[in-house]
## 1
Amino acid sequence: MAVLDRISTLDPIREKVEAGERLDFEDGVCLMESDDLLGLGELADLARRLRGGDDRVFFVQNLYLHQTNVCRVKCKFCAFAFTQKQPEAYTYTAEEVVEEALRQYDVAPFTEIHIVNGESPHVDFAYYVDTVLALHEALPQVHLKMFTASEIHHMSTLSGLSYEDVLTELRAVGLGSLTGGGAEIFADRVRRLIAPGKEHPDNWFEVNRVAHGLGIPTHCTMLYGHVETYEERVDHLLRLRELQDETGGFLAFIPLAFHPENTVFERRGWRHTTGSDDLKVIAVSRLLLDNMPHLKAYWIMMGLPLAQIALHFGANDVQGTLVREEIFHRAGARTEQEQKVEELVRAIREAGRVAVQRDTLYNELRRWA
Ligand code: SF4
């Protein structure tokens, strides 16, 4: 059956990949429906190499922080957010964020700080500007990858400023790039079910378009493994591809598996995604996103062993060392919260690839032959 499936489904798509032809919506759905997992992986790795990829696998030495977990949006898939009155809620001052960053930098120097937050209605735009400025002044050598496009929309709502003005002001005080969160699944049907309080996807795209126009690079994601169909996954990927065609401003795509613990979906008996689905999403993403320079196997979400396999399914990045990741761990991720550089290097090398430490913009800092 697997052999038949491979002949009937993957071969015509393989011909397009080998000819350098762009895959379309129907191809994407066929790939998602295929049970030939190894065939998908092999095809995605072929596509990666035909488009100029080599044996290098990247990682970054970074620090994850959150300024506030207070959020007004109440996405149903989220285990991270709280209301201001709940005992778990926190909102750190700019000074507290800097203090923690300096403390961590002394333990293990990093080249990137990654910050995402809840959308708190109890702060103002100056809160964000002050934090970026204080971090930049304390650690000018560190790239500040901060905020999702949804948070930029939130700041625009808080301040009454345009996306362009918000981004210009943040960049002036040290913002280097935006994170990729907030994309979820773009289809209206899915958003109504899982994130009815979130801004329309058009806003997410417009923030990214404006950022790219200002020369601020961004990242993009897809949260999969909940109520979405294969068609809605493919639609999501093709919408990202379209914006990348227009601007070229995305640095990398990161598929994010849904983790149900501590969400309303846990009470409905929902389970984690399986390794097969995680690998399939990596492979199909690599095949459809022919204009996306990098694809991350996010080990914090899938675990380092599966991330190693994903390196043979089209991924070329395992993200970073990360300290104190909260979003996936509150939702049930059982992975470590931190990996030492040596562990990442070992995992990449044992997967048969060349480990490269990069900065946020994919400049090579160190290579392990
Ligand atoms: S996913 Fe983000 S916007 Fe949605 S509730 Fe959680 S913190 Fe808020």
## 2
Amino acid sequence: MYCLIFTTLMLLSPVLCTKTSQDGIIFNKYHNHEQMLKVLHDTNAKCKDITKVYSIGKSVKGRELAVIAFSKSPEFHQPGVPEIKYIGNMHGNEVVGRAVLIDFVQYLCIEYLKGNKEILEFIGNTSLHIMPTMNPDGFAIADSQEDWPKDYIKGRYNANGVDLNRNFPDFDKVVCEFKKNSHLGYFRKYVAIATKGLVLQPETTAIIEWIMDKSFVLSANFHGGDMVANYPYDTTCNGKSREYNASPDDRIFRQLAHAYSNGNDHMSKSTGCSAGDNFKDGITNGAMWYSVSGGMQDFNYLATNCFELTIEMGCEKFPPPSDLPEYWRENKHALMNYALQATCGVKGFVRDSATGEGIPRAVVMLKDVHHAVWTAEHGDYWRLLAPGTYHVMVEAQGYENSVYYEVDVPECTPYSAVTLDINLNKETSYETSQRYKETMKHLRDALKAIRED
Ligand SMILES: [Zn+2]
């Protein structure tokens, strides 16, 4: 009330009338680019042992694509610790994810300093990278409109007028045309098909290099304009505008979508915001909702190890700032619930049986789920899986294939991943063939010597 009177008397914008928590987090305010960067750097200064701020590149207009990482060793990947990422504001005018991630960054640091057990355990066992905006130029355009409600489209695209969520190599095309369901390790020959006619934007290129560089396990990409957790595949294979298109990992993707939606009391009851939406429990297969090609979510799944969902945070793309505290309240648990999914399934190390050294880029496969993941730089891997019995095998260049190991994956509770370490023996066929060649050479030399006698 005090706030309202003050605003009316002084004719100030309601944006200046901030609602600050006891901890100093301002919940009902949009941060412009510089203010957002300041939050990241201030958080880093407060929590310097467990955070790192870095940039993965620049937007068309030269704004930093800034990330803050939380982990007990934020400078480096710790062997055996899963890497998670949250990306907001890919469409510049869909701003709730951006605002909620800026809150989340501050919340994690404050709760860590307070000694919150859940946060201490989370930061001790995972590595979370948060990018509040992937499209700072689009946000600046959307935010520059003074009137409410804001235009429905203005600011969606990057500064070159490109929809970033249609700008990724289209490996769905490969899945549809060639019925291949693995990852880029097997897809190299299809890269030309997936990238045909594509003009990559600087924001997209930066994201692709980031995803290929880090061994991300789990990700969420935050949007707005509807309310649902959307999982792969995003594209129909028959050209229809909507039809369920299940990936080989449909069961775990549904579990991941439920993990987000169940953590958000509003989303879990959402049937959708638009005519034609008919979501159940606030989740949907992407292609069942509407077919999208060149999206970031399916690129993550098909080209890398990372399982990503597209989270639609609410019906309004750019709600008034006074609604933001409620969005924070709704999403706070969902953000934690979802990230903890990275600690379920199967994890372990693939090592050389003679030296004990981890083997990077070993391919971890399952008998009945036709989608492989590969090991990270220290031979560590994570395979997100729904509860059930699976048969896991590993192959790596220069090594004999492992046998199939049977693994029982339990219901997901935090940090419940089953550990399966696999040792591989060096392939001997190379040495055998060398010996064979040498033997043949001796034989030829001997025969030659006999003939010359
Ligand atoms: Zn969007």
